[in-house]
User: Which sequence fits this backbone?
């Protein structure tokens, strides 16, 4: 990495190679970091796995999202730690360590884009690239008090980026301020194919709010009020007829099925010793009943239609990003699995549909940040980022 | 690595770069592997640690021991898995896996030169480089049914090799047959400064034999008889006045003290998540009482004088390499620590003194190999290897 110090253990400690960047553009004067799933010429790519790192060799070319950032004038400062094979929401890596949550140092940072969220939240860079398959940008953004975008599926190229489950993989990003979030959006998104109107319809997902911790409700209500001051009062949206519980299972089946197919050859050939929870997820994907997977696809298609109908071209869905602020660093096994179970109920909504979701750091709960999110129609990504930037509190450090 | 297949998981899966080798020499026609502590130009070096691997970059030069093998006509086939930072005798690496013991697939291979012993014992190469600080060649050689040499301290250059505890670190090697062991000795040792006579005095370390499992005694006695057929009846050697227990502690203090000093900056700066037993050893080295370390140095100096007196220029000490055959793969925590404790009583004798030790795969116990060893005076390394080759059973596959 290119920094003198990394007190947050956010970065992979690769020998520094600094790629050239454009002199101007939306990221001019800003620094950026890159989750170690993206190739950067002159570096290996680990995907959070020591065995993938050994296999990697030095990459000759930048991933497309890295090239976009350099062309937008951003200065690359390093590659960041990822959860192993990006298949976790926790932000702990038994091989490379746990990056520090800059907003709540006694909490897990969230993952799998843990190092990117850590680097931005600790002020070690301005913006950062992550990936979000099942929540890997949104969860750490919520935990670390950052703006984060999971874009429309396919919006930012995955070229040169390691995959987890291709049907759900997206390239996303983090920023500490609304102003930086907007510049990141301009760099990585370009123009919207389907921009939102200036004041979109706000729809409140009551079933999603009901999943958040009771203690978090007052702060979430305040965050909602701040958004309503911009967009007007939220209407109620019913997500049914399919229950969140079923949507959540559909997402998990499909993600696990794809993740197993994507990694099968690697896992069988090299037998890498995985973090136990990650190993269990792959084994579960291996052993899934094809009928369950087939049914999950139907649930997915129904949900996509349902959400498209709710949002039309002018609606945004309001929901808590995560059910609570980040678990403490000493939280183990069952506690984390139960937290993950609840979190996926919220995270699956945009993921299953392939719709964009922006998370805003507008709430706090139990002394740590909690994000609130807007899901927009496909292709409205930059509009969501612009909305988030317009809603963001003024920040004296924002450029 | 340069092999098509590695069913033993012995090798680090680096992209293949084949260095040139001489057309003739003692290793002509033989293949060799290299523990991933040695630099090979075109490869990174991990020392069994994902964080060291990330820091490594691609090495521009061969380690001196690698250069010797290439100059001796050996063909390099790959870098092998090491225990984490080479600080274990087990041969399990939580980041890169457990190489298969080719002689006893249900047993641990032993470490830290686990991948090298695995590669040779599975027939994936002919000879292999390892390092031995506290037993990391001798233990896996014994467990995998191989010939192995821990040389006189300083005999083979450590240039381009990662360190564990420099006062004890040595470069050693493995072979499957006596004939290959001899050719490896010719390649890596050159001529002896202090060769043994053709028929050295054989001294039996009764206190060391007493530490071996009762069930292993008949096989060890047979192995002794085979050696005596070559060298004549063994005389009795008393190791005292210092008890093996005290020698063992002296070794552990000194090794832990040096290992902590060697890795202190790395551990404090990067906070790598270590295998728990390895982390404990470093923490123990950090917290040692300097008076204990000072006393251990006196014990070491006394033992070196004692052993030099016993062996003179013409004696070799006979002892079991390990207290028993390899623990089973499912052996955990306390069982392995207790095995390590007993093993270090035997392994510390050559290590503390800096004298060379050759282990020969002449015994079996409980259905798996067990080595028997000869310790010679400093500088008698090639003589020991020649003795081992002369004692070795005929092997039809030996070149």
Assistant:
């Amino acid at each position: 990495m290119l920094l003198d110090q990394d007190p947050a253990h956010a970065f992979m400690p690769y020998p520094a190679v600094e790629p050239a960047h454009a002199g101007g553009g939306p990221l001019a004067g800003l620094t950026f970091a890159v989750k170690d799933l993206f190739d950067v010429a002159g570096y290996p790519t680990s995907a959070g796995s020591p065995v993938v790192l050994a296999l990697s060799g030095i990459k000759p070319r930048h991933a497309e999202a890295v090239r976009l950032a350099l062309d937008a004038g951003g200065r690359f400062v390093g590659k960041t730690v990822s959860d192993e094979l990006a298949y976790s929401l926790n932000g702990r890596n038994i091989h490379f360590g746990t990056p520090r949550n800059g907003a709540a140092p006694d909490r897990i940072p969230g993952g799998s884009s843990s190092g990117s969220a850590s680097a931005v939240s600790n002020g070690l860079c301005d913006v950062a690239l992550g990936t979000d398959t099942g929540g890997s940008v949104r969860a750490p953004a919520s935990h670390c008090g950052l703006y984060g975008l999971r874009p429309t599926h396919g919006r930012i190229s995955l070229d040169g980026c390691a995959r987890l489950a291709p049907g759900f993989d997206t390239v996303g990003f983090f920023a500490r301020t609304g102003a930086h979030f907007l510049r990141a959006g301009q760099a990585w998104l370009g123009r919207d194919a389907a921009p939102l109107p200036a004041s979109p319809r706000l729809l409140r997902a009551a079933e999603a709010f009901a999943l958040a911790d009771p203690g978090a409700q007052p702060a979430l209500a305040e965050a909602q009020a701040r958004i309503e001051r911009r967009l007007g009062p939220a209407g109620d949206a019913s997500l049914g007829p399919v229950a969140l519980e079923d949507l959540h299972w559909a997402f998990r089946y499909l993600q696990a099925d794809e993740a197993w197919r994507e990694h099968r050859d690697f896992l069988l050939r090299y037998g890498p010793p995985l973090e136990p929870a990650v190993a269990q997820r792959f084994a579960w994907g291996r052993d899934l009943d094809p009928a369950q997977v087939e049914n999950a696809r139907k649930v997915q298609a129904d949900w996509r239609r349902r959400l498209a109908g709710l949002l039309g071209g002018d609606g945004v869905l309001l929901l808590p990003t995560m059910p609570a602020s980040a678990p403490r660093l000493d939280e183990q096994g069952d506690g984390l699995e139960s937290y993950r179970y609840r979190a996926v109920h919220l995270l699956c909504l945009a993921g299953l549909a392939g719709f964009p979701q922006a998370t805003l750091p507008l709430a706090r709960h139990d002394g740590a940040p909690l994000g609130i999110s807007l899901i927009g129609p496909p292709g409205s990504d930059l509009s969501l980022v612009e909305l988030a930037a317009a809603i963001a509190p003024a920040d004296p450090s924002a450029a």
Chain B has one domain: 31-244+288-391. The CA atoms of residues 88 and 234 of chain B lie 33 Å apart. Chain B has a mean pLDDT of 96. Chain B touches chain A at residues 9, 12-15, 44, 46, 50-51, 53-58, 93-98, 270-273 (CB under 8 Å).
